[in-house]
Amino acid sequence: MMSPLPTMSDFSASTYERADAAARQLVGQAFLVPLLKEVRESTSAHGVFAPGTAEKRFGPIIDHQMADALMTRLDLDLVAQVRQDIVNKEGQKAEVTS
What we know:
The chain starts with 12 loop residues before the first helix and ends with a helix. It has one domain (13-41, 51-97). It is an all-alpha fold. The longest helix has 29 residues, at 13-41. Helices cover 72% and strands 0% of the residues. α1 packs antiparallel against α2 (53-73) and α1 runs antiparallel to α3 (77-97).
């Protein structure tokens, strides 16, 4: 009988790695990108230091790049929980097809 919380050894490494990548992308896009956008847009720079056309145009791209970079370095509990949910779903699918 399989334990209620499967570990990496219960699944192939590729399943675990794909689940980790998907969890990091989901958390980054759902939580970090809006946070970075809010911080970028809430700056009180005026005059010469106000955001220019390029910063306004490329700001969202930078937000996404920054979120991706942060998600590769941060070890958030939310990422671990989402990854575990994905791995559990894969395990359930594998049991059904067997």
